[in-house]
Design brief:
5-stranded mixed beta sheet; about 300 residues; alpha+beta
Length: about 300
Amino acid sequence: MSTSRPVRSLILNKYLLLRACVVLCTAFSGCSSNTPPQEQKQPSQAGQGQSQPAPSPQAAAQPADQDEEVQMGQEVFNELKAKGEIIESSPLYDQLRPITDAITRAAQPQYNHPFKFYLVHETQPNAFATPGGNVYVVDSLLYFVKNKEELAGTLCHEVAHTIHHDSIELMEKRQRIKEREIGAAILLGPTRAHLLAIALIGQLHSLGYSRDVEARADLTGSDVCAQTGSNPWGLVWLFQDFNNASPNEIPQLLSDHPADQNRIHALERHFRQNPAVFGKFNQDPKSATPIDVPKNAQEVFMR
């Protein structure tokens, strides 16, 4: 998801340009550190404020890669917080919280770390998930979607990326070790998770998942929506809105998640093949639940 500020500004305010350049090539340097990441500050009661469900039995044994995902997620959280983009409290949370609570209850058994949802302020309507369970919802998305089902479908899609570990797998695939730069990375001293996190920050708003990865997130996301009781057709309606929009009206959300007709057909086929799950939902957009968000909602940012 894209901001009006250059993406590199997320890196340069805290890290030297040299480190950022090394990171893109040496994320697999194997450096390690015993220093734990800074603890995340939770949104206030006026913000997120909900309690997290107890972890599933499978969550008791956390593999090493899951620990690394939490570290990556923490690094991204710290960067967004340092930039003053995370919204601590806003009336918009009142609209968001019931949807995210339901998604958390449905999706939590499929992931080893608690899902947490944060509003962030950016210019383009979007949502993005990071390793470790954090999901960020751009405030303008609540004004862009036409109904609650479209919002739920978008968030379920992002949660599905987390369930499938898509962002960390994408970062790992894109990184290649160059022997001559390993020593420099070791001298700089960041952890492997830190290196991957900086690379992730640089591409956070344009991850460019493959069509197969996006399609898989669509299907898993629709399953999560159905579990919450929210109409999974909301994601189809959102894609149809994208397809009907003129080029200058298409937000960054679409360029990050290309909504071609094949994805719509794949969702429709998934619904037909599972009538016991999806048969009760109305595919007519006129059946959607309106979303009522306050205009010019006051926002208090996390410091």
